[in-house]
Every structure is written in structure tokens, then in C-alpha cells.
């Protein structure tokens, strides 16, 4: 059961009624899409939304179309009562928690396919993932019609995919990124961190250090290809099982960069598995020339 202090909409009609009432009163609305299992990272996005709009809607929907067969859709943690209480505490005004049938009624057959920024990194490692994300986010934006929608920079590629689709489809919404929130050892907060054993959690805490070290080397003028290779070796020796990618990419369009020192703003991206958990993270690279 949701927190009694936080109103919940279960249908598009209920969501639209609430948002229309606010809009009719001249209020601005922010949307924070989530899949639940909330942590401080999500709550910081709600607070950011509150600073940009009069009312914040947070959606909780574990979107089946962005999980491939064999991924963790069934196991994904779900606790709406806990999430609703956290959202209410962070200043959220409305929880939107639709069912799968509400989002994907029988006969649903449309997919939003974003080219360019969807294709490298997680686009290669999880080939159906971004179409699922782009489709559900397009629906959420059209259902809610917020002035601003907020996404975490931890999923930096996802943020670029969503910016691209909003621009390409002329969606009248501002897409904002919120900074990654990290644990005391620097591990990026993620709902999937809950899967980690004590030993896996210790190893996971080294991932951000490998990125930070790589970013510092790049800032000092080291070549992209050698920095990528060193970061990969460091992550492998820390105890990660398999590494999908460690890549330095242009921050604006995720284009591949030349092998030498950086000449434009970049980020280093990683996806690596520890036990059965796949973690992603990214770190900005700031050089004197950028
Ligand atoms: O980042 C997430 O939690 C999801 O990918 C999103 C944006 C809510 C779409 O399902």
C-alpha cells in the first residue's frame, strides 16, 4: 500500500486529471521517472524537480521492455510502500504507478528507436535496451506532459538518448540531468547494489576509483587507448568477472575519440559484472584544453 500522505495515480486518466488541475492553476510540473527501489540518488532528483517546478510527479514502473530475456526483470526489487514514504519525505506531490496493462495494453506495437547515441556502449551490450527505455519514457512524457523531466547522470547514455528523442520528436519538455550520488567509498548509488554480497560490495567500491584515476591520467595528457587499457586491467584485477566496456567517448554525442590526448570534453564509461550483478558508471574528463 502506498504511503497515505502521498496521493497515487494508477491510470493515465488519473495522472492527467491531477496534472491538468495544476496546470490550470498556472503551476509548473516536474516528472521524475523511476523503476522504484529508490535511494538517495532518486530523492535528489525529486528535490531538483521541486527546485524547478511547483509540483513533482515521480513515476514507478518496472518497464519490462527494457529488460532482455535472462536479465533481472523478475528479480528487480519492488517495495512501493517504502518508496512512497521516501518520495513523500523528499517533497514529491504525486506517485504515478501504472500497471503493465495500463502502459502496454493488448495490441501495443509501437517502438521508439533512437539512432546515434543509442548505438555504442550499452547499445551494443544490451541491444534491445534503449528502444525499451525510449518507448516508455516517450509514453511517460506524453502521459504527464511535464514542463521538465529529470534523469540521473549515472545513466549518462540514457540521459543523452532521452534528450535526443525529446528534441527529435519536438516534445515540449526540458530534459535535465541530476548529478550521480555516491556512497562513502564512491560507489555510484544504484538499485542493483542491493544484489551485492558483502565481498562483492567491497570490490564494487573500486570501480569509481579506476574511472577517477583514468580521468586524471587523461587530464594530464595521457593517450586515450592506453588509459582505457590500464583502466580495464585495473578493474579486472580488482575482482570483476567480466567487463562489457571501458571507453572514453565524447560527452555530447558519445563519438569515439582519437587515440591521442583529448581535445574536447569527454567521459569515461564502464560496464562490468561482479557475480551476477552488472554495474555501470561514468566519470567526466576535464583537461586544460577542454
Ligand atoms: O533509469 C531508469 O530507472 C529507467 O530506465 C527509466 C528512465 C525510469 C525508464 O524505465
Q: What does this molecule look like?
A:
- With 290 residues, this protein is an alpha/beta fold.
- The protein folds into two domains: 8-178, HUPs (Rossmann fold); 191-285, 2-Layer Sandwich (Pantoate--beta-alanine Ligase, Chain: A,domain 2), CATH 3.30.1300.10.
- The protein is built from ten helices and nine strands.
- It starts with 7 loop residues before the first strand and ends in a 5-residue tail after the last strand.
- Pantoate binds at residues 33-35, 63, 66, 133, 136-137, 155, 158.
- Residues 33-35, 63, 66, 133, 136-137, 155, 158 line the site of pantoate.
Tell me the helix content. Answer: 25-40%
- Ligand inventory: pantoate
End-to-end CA span: 50 Å
Query: What count of structural domains?
Result: 2
Short structural summary:
This protein is 38% helix and 19% strand. The protein is an alpha/beta fold and 290 residues long. The protein has two domains: 8-178, HUPs (Rossmann fold, 3-Layer(aba) Sandwich), CATH 3.40.50.620; 191-285, Pantoate-beta-alanine ligase, C-terminal domain (Pantoate--beta-alanine Ligase, Chain: A,domain 2).
Amino acid at each position: 500500500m502506498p504511503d497515505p500522505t502521498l496521493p497515487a495515480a494508477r491510470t493515465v486518466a488519473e495522472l492527467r486529471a491531477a496534472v491538468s488541475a495544476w496546470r490550470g492553476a498556472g503551476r509548473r510540473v516536474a516528472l521524475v521517472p523511476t523503476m522504484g527501489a529508490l535511494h538517495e540518488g532518486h530523492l535528489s532528483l525529486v528535490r531538483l524537480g521541486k527546485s524547478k517546478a511547483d509540483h513533482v510527479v515521480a513515476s514507478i514502473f518496472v518497464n519490462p521492455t527494457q529488460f532482455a530475456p535472462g536479465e533481472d526483470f523478475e528479480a528487480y526489487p519492488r517495495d512501493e510502500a517504502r518508496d512512497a514514504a521516501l518520495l513523500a519525505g523528499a517533497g514529491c506531490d504525486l506517485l504515478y504507478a501504472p500497471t503493465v496493462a495500463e502502459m502496454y495494453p493488448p495490441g501495443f506495437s509501437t517502438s521508439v528507436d533512437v539512432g546515434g547515441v543509442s548505438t555504442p556502449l550499452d547499445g551494443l551490450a544490451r541491444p534491445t535496451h534503449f528502444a525499451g527505455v525510449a518507448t516508455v519514457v516517450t509514453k511517460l512524457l506524453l502521459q504527464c506532459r511535464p514542463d521538465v523531466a529529470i534523469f540521473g547522470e549515472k545513466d549518462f547514455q540514457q540521459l543523452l538518448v532521452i534528450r535526443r528523442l525529446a528534441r527529435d520528436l519536438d516534445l515540449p519538455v526540458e530534459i535535465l540531468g541530476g548529478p550521480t550520488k555516491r556512497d562513502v567509498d564512491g560507489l555510484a548509488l544504484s538499485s542493483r547494489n542491493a544484489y551485492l554480497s558483502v565481498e562483492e560490495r567491497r570490490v564494487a567500491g573500486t570501480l569509481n576509483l579506476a574511472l577517477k584515476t583514468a580521468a586524471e591520467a587523461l587530464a594530464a595528457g595521457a593517450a586515450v587507448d592506453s588509459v582505457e587499457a590500464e583502466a580495464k586491467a585495473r578493474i579486472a584485477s580488482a575482482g570483476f568477472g567480466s567487463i562489457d566496456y571501458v571507453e572514453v567517448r565524447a560527452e555530447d554525442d558519445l563519438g569515439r575519440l582519437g587515440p591521442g590526448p583529448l581535445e574536447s570534453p569527454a567521459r569515461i564509461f564502464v560496464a562490468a559484472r561482479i557475480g551476477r550483478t552488472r554495474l555501470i558508471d561514468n566519470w567526466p574528463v576535464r583537461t586544460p584544453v577542454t
